[in-house]
Structures are given as structure tokens and as C-alpha cells.
Design a protein that fits this description.
With about 300 residues, this protein is of the alpha/beta class. The protein has two domains: about 5-180 and about 265-295, 3-Layer(aba) Sandwich (Rossmann fold); about 185-255, DNA polymerase, domain 1 (Orthogonal Bundle), CATH 1.10.150.20. About 45% of the residues lie in helices and about 10% in strands. The protein has 13 helices and ten strands. Strands 5-4-3-6-7-8 form a six-stranded mixed beta sheet, sandwiched between helices. The radius of gyration is 21 Å and the shape is elongated. It starts with a strand and ends in an 11-residue tail after the last helix.
């Protein structure tokens, strides 16, 4: 029988490697938790929420290895092609900026790979990692609050999608993605091209909702095929609307599709937690005054433990 985690998520498949969409988790933690700071006034809520979630996932999933992906400071190919990509997002609050300055030190304490590829987003890096690791026969879990990563769902890859605020996390495999959106994971970029994505400032087609988009994806499979067979689309009003939006639709599909072949900085794709990393994390938690996390960390199984959880 499937068991349920403390978050109420049904577990059917063992997890070998967990991949974290770092900034996505940190930003959600910052906005979900009340302001926290150390006794010296250093903001600490985002890193607390991030660390808490990482420990929770590791405890519940019991992977043998993990890795992190982060966005780089340089412009991505998407922003180069479409300057309005992700336009309108609010500036990073000062308190969060202070925490982001400490984030590399916290990640280093895990002693596992942290990937960043200039010109690409962390999503592309995660898609590449998921494809390569799953290709070795291991089961992968990607943790993110970005729906774009649902594209990576497959036979050996699941996504733990983080809800906003108090919304529970949702576990997606390929079947659940198709049940939710009416299209397979690989066709999500086509679906997004039609309905748009406000978070990335991708403008969809007026009058095309999720149901119509799913029907068009099922019939044509790609924006190129849809535009090549517009005469087969009815009613005439929809056909003309699609024709007028043709350039934008092609661009949307390109921007929405993740790259799973980006160059990576090392051939070591993931690594286990060790006694060494547990000691370094404990030191970080002490410095940030995360007393409640110290016990959770102590009970967490790492390489070298023989009895599992305490």
C-alpha cells in the first residue's frame, strides 16, 4: 500500500536523488514565513524555511544523494531574445538580499554539487540533471515551485511542486501532469504558448483557455504544426486570432521549453550527505540560531550511519 508523508503526499516510488531549485525554495520560504532574525538583527527567515524544507524532504524521501541548482547573475538566452521576459517582477526585498548573500555559504556546507550555468536558468540545469541521472536508472525527485519543471516528469522523474503560502506541496508524475493539464509533460511548452504564463510575462492568446489549448495540443502537437494547418481550425474567429498571434506563439513555445542539454561544471551530478557535511551544517545552524533544526539534523541519516534515523 502507498504510504503518506507528513505533508499528506502519497509515496509510491523510492527516491535515489533529490534536486533542489534553490532560489525557488528560498523565495517561497521568505514570503511564507513571518520575519525572523538572529539576536544581532540578521534576517534569517528565508534560509530557515529553505533549510527546514530540505531536511524535511531528505527525511521523508530518504535519498542516497542530492544536488542544488541556482540561477546565475548573467542574462539568460530567454531575456536576450525577449527583453520583457519575467518583466514586472518586484525587486528583491532588502532583508532577502541579505540572506541571499549568505546562501552560498550554507549551500557549501552541504558538500554536494551546486550547479549554475551562465546563460541558462536553474530550470534548464535541473532538466539536464534529471535527464542524465534518470538515464542511469535512478529515481529522481525535483523540488521546485516553478511549474515549468513539470516538463521533466517521466518514468523515473517526479516533481514536488511547492504551493504558495500555506498551500500544501503536490507530487507530480507524468500521469498526474496529464490529468491536471490535459497534455503530456513534453507538450507543456505548447500548452503554455497558447494560454500564457504571467509569472514569466508570456502573453497567451485571447480567448484560448486551458481546455481549448489542450484540444489544440492534442490535434496538432506543436505551434509549428498548428500554424501550418490553421485552415483546419474552427471557428473562424479562433483561426484568425491564432493567425494574428503566430509570431508570439512561436516565441512563447521556444521560451517555455526547458533545455535538458546544458553544459555542467562537473561530471559529479549529485552526492550524499556525510558526517562532515552534517558538522558544517550544524555550525551554520548554530550561527543562524536555528535551534529547532539542530535536532532534526542530528536525527537525519547520512553516509556512515548504520542505524538509520535516530
Amino acid at each position: 500500500m502507498p504510504r503518506k508523508s507528513a505533508a499528506g503526499i502519497q509515496e509510491r516510488t523510492a527516491t535515489d536523488v533529490v534536486l533542489f531549485d534553490t532560489y525557488s525554495v528560498v523565495f517561497r520560504a521568505f514570503h511564507a514565513l513571518p520575519p525572523l532574525s538572529t539576536s544581532t538583527g540578521v534576517p534569517s527567515s528565508a534560509l530557515y524555511g529553505f533549510s527546514s524544507l530540505v531536511l524535511k524532504v531528505l527525511r521523508e524521501q530518504g535519498p542516497s544523494e542530492l544536488a542544488f541548482a541556482v540561477d546565475g547573475p548573467s542574462r539568460t538566452f530567454r531575456a536576450e531574445r525577449y527583453p520583457e521576459y519575467k518583466a514586472g517582477r518586484p525587486r528583491t526585498p532588502s532583508a532577502l538580499s541579505q540572506e541571499l548573500e549568505r546562501l552560498p555559504r550554507l549551500l557549501e556546507a552541504f558538500e554536494v554539487p551546486v550547479f549554475c550555468t551562465p546563460g541558462f536558468e536553474a530550470d534548464d540545469v535541473l532538466a539536464t540533471l534529471a535527464r542524465r541521472i534518470a538515464g542511469t536508472g535512478r529515481q529522481v525527485l525535483v523540488v521546485s515551485g516553478d511549474r515549468d519543471l513539470l516538463q521533466t516528469a517521466g518514468e523515473r522523474t517526479r516533481i514536488l511542486f511547492l504551493g504558495r503560502r500555506a498551500q500544501p506541496a503536490e507530487l507530480y508524475d507524468a500521469a498526474r501532469v496529464e490529468a491536471r493539464f490535459g497534455v503530456s509533460p513534453a507538450k507543456l511548452p505548447v500548452f503554455t504558448a497558447l494560454v500564457g504564463d504571467p509569472s514569466d510575462h508570456l502573453v497567451g492568446v485571447a480567448g484560448v483557455g486551458p481546455r481549448t489549448a489542450a484540444e489544440l495540443v492534442a490535434r496538432f502537437g506543436s505551434i509549428g504544426e498548428l500554424l501550418a494547418h490553421l485552415d483546419d481550425v474552427s471557428p473562424a474567429k479562433l483561426r484568425e486570432t491564432l493567425r494574428q498571434a503566430s509570431e508570439r506563439l512561436l516565441m512563447n513555445e521556444t521560451l517555455a521549453r526547458l533545455h535538458d542539454d546544458v553544459p555542467l561544471s562537473t561530471s559529479v551530478l549529485s552526492a550524499p550527505l556525510t558526517e562532515s557535511s552534517r558538522g558544517r551544517l550544524a555550525a551554520e545552524f548554530e550561527a543562524l540560531e536555528y535551534k529547532s533544526l539542530l535536532l532534526r539534523l542530528e536525527r537525519l541519516k547520512v553516509r556512515g550511519d548504520s542505524a538509520g534515523l535516530a
